[in-house]
């Protein structure tokens, strides 16, 4: 799929940039008015391509910054899911241990009580 994208989109775009660069080799002088700066003569295509490239970078930065909230939420939900999975495994292990203890008791003995507390909290009497 990526090769198809390359040949259909990127190659014609590269050809257009090359044709634009060859046809716009005239020199221009940029006068940055408030800074009272004048540049050396530059080809038109370099000024245009530099503007397009800087616009592309600024647009990418804006998109990355605007996606920060979604990335933060996804990271938080991933941590929450990991924590829930660990708690589930712990609960399953406790249940399995308690079931095995219940099966090993003799009919006359009292079976251990099931507790929703972790073993260390149940031993302390909480």
Features:
two-stranded antiparallel ribbon, 126 residues, elongated, 4 strands
How are the elements arranged and paired?
Layout: H1 2-23, E1 27-28, E2 31-32, E3 37-38, E4 42-43, H2 44-66, H3 68-104, H4 119-123
Helix pairs in contact: 1-2
Structure commentary:
The protein has 126 residues and is mainly alpha-helical. The chain has a domain of 65 residues. 69% of the residues lie in helices and 6% in strands. It has 4 helices and 4 strands. The strands form 2 sheets. Strands 1-4 form a two-stranded antiparallel ribbon. A two-stranded antiparallel sheet has the order 2-3. Helix 1 runs antiparallel to helix 2. It is elongated.
Annotation, overall tally of beta strands: 4
Radius of gyration: 34 Å
Low-confidence stretches: none
Q: Strands across the major sheet, in which order?
A: 1-4
